[in-house]
Design brief:
CATH architecture: 3-Layer(aba) Sandwich
Strand content: 5-15%
CATH superfamily: NAD(P)-binding Rossmann-like Domain
Number of domains: 1
Strand order of the largest sheet: 3-2-1-4-5-6-7
Radius of gyration: 18 Å
Helix content: 40-55%
Shape: globular
Bound molecules: nicotinamide-adenine-dinucleotide
CATH topology: Rossmann fold
Number of strands: 7
């Protein structure tokens, strides 16, 4: 038998982290981090609405998670296009039910030296990594405000803080996303919405595939990371469940870095 808490407001830790009865929309969830977080939230009890731009990827993710016994619906749309976002989230608000948790995961890279970066690459990266979080939140948040509760999690990056050559567009977008996270926290915090960011270090996904196949980069990341290795998408699940759950009700406007210690090291 567990000891009784002296604090009558204290809940047991399992119920603090439970997402039972909560509905989550996760963008860019066809693969990689989004798919991994989807599985993590579903395991904690959430019903899922998965978004991706790629219909085949999305259908496969939905089928896989359904096969694992989870309640999942797919919504295929481009998070960077205002009209598609509006159509994509239409119908998710049904009476008292709506989206309780929004995770903005969709993101892209278009690497190029800054002095030769085409405007199209600059704009595309800003649109998908930054503007999309504004567009999707703007579509979903009115329902959260009506119900008086909501959780928003934005996938930031180490590049919200530090940069390297060829990724100026990505760094600008992720730096902007960090400040959009804080702006959302400030704007909606008084109405019981909490907005936080997760800043992953280097994780093995399709996005980082060009780096993992390069033996020099592969080794550089291991040497640079105190943990001595790359991370896996599933290593973000604990942070995401925390930020999506009641356990984080007084946490707002924070960017939680999950990077094996890289940002702390010289
Ligand atoms: N992998 C890492 O090491 C790492 C590190 C820091 C931050 N991140 C961030 O985490 C997020 C996920 O990264 P990942 O590594 O899983 O990438 P990924 O490329 O494996 O997956 C991204 C998914 O987003 C989808 N997508 C792209 N554009 C879209 C659009 N316009 N509308 C809807 N969906 C779209 C893609 O189809 C894909 O399924 C991104 O925001 C990325 O910037 C990744």
């Amino acid at each position: 038998m567990s000891p009784r808490s002296a604090d009558p407001g204290a809940a047991d830790s399992a119920s603090l982290f439970s997402l039972q009865g909560r509905r989550a929309l996760i963008t860019g969830a066809g693969q990689g981090i989004g798919l991994s977080l989807a599985r993590g939230l579903a395991t904690a009890g959430a019903e899922l609405f998965l978004n991706d731009l790629d219909p085949t990827r999305l259908a496969s993710a939905v089928a896989t998670l359904r096969g694992e016994g989870f309640q999942v619906t797919g919504r295929c749309f481009d998070v960077a296009k205002e009209t598609e976002v509006a159509a994509g989230v239409a119908g998710l608000e049904l009476g008292e039910a709506g989206i309780d948790i929004l995770i903005n995961t969709a993101g892209i890279h278009r690497r190029a030296p800054l002095e030769a970066m085409p405007l199209e690459s600059w704009q595309a990266v800003l649109d998908v990594n930054l503007t999309s979080a504004f567009l999707v939140a703007r579509a979903v948040v009115p329902g959260m405000l009506r119900r008086g509760a909501g959780k928003i999690i934005n996938l930031c990056s180490l590049n919200s803080e530090i940069s390297r050559p060829t990724i100026a567009n990505y760094s600008a977008a992720k730096g902007g996303l960090k400040m959009l996270t804080r702006a959302m926290a400030v704007e909606w915090g008084g109405r019981n919405l909490q907005t936080n960011g997760i800043a992953p270090g280097y994780l093995r996904t399709d996005m980082t595939g060009v780096l993992t196949i390069d033996p020099v980069w592969e080794r550089t990341i291991c040497n640079r990371t105190p943990a001595g290795r790359w991370g896996e998408p599933r290593e973000l699940i604990g942070t995401a469940v925390f930020l999506a759950s009641r356990a984080s009700d007084f946490v707002n406007g924070q960017i939680i870095v999950v990077d094996g210690g890289l940002l702390a090291a010289l």
